[in-house]
Amino acid sequence: MVISYASVLVAGLMPMVCAGIAKAGAKGYDNHDPRAWLSHQGGYRARANAAQANCFEAFPFFAVGVLLALLTGVDPFMVDLLAALFVATRVAYVACYLADKALFRTIFWTVGYLSVVTFFVLAMQNLQMD
Predict the structure, then answer these.
(1) Gap between the Cα atoms of 122 and 118, Å rounded
(2) Which of 3, 28, 101, 118 could form a disulfide with 80 if both were Cys (CB 3.0 to 4.6 A apart)?
(3) With contact defined as beta carbons under 8 Å apart, do 1 and 76 qualify?
(4) What are the extents of the domains in the chain?
(5) What is the predicted pLDDT for the residue at 31?
(6) pLDDT digits (tens, 9 = 90+) for 59-114
């Protein structure tokens, strides 16, 4: 379970990493209005900002899935495995986003999404056994 807890932490921090990538070393960065500044960026900075938004969007579904799986008695090893898979695919997703590799980005997004859906399926199966 330590891996799943750490995975939730890492997934929660990933948007900040993406934001840092979008803003790092930028000339003319305006911390008074960072969203407006980011909206005018292109290339990898714009993609890092989009990855940041997607990481925020994916986090609640993932965190709730981990918690439901653990609370319903899903095998902790399986929860750890799925949580690690999610984080690994999210890191690969961000890397592909930054490198503008759309097909691979979509593949990693899909695998990560399916890992979260699996948390819910396993949780529901455990509830039906009771």
Answers:
(1) 6
(2) 3
(3) yes
(4) 2-129
(5) 85
(6) 999 999 999 999 999 999 999 999 999 999 999 999 999 999 999 999 999 999 99
- Cα–chain-centroid distance for residue 39? 22
**Is 14 in contact with 55 (CB distance < 8 Å)?**
yes
Closest CA to 48 of 80, 10, 19: 19
Q: Please report the pLDDT score of residue 130 as a whole number.
A: 61
- Determine the Cα–Cα distance for residues 75 and 123; give it in Å rounded to an integer: 10
The DSSP symbol for 63 reads H
Spatial separation of the C-alpha atoms in residues 3 and 87, rounded to whole Å: 10
pLDDT of res. 129: 76
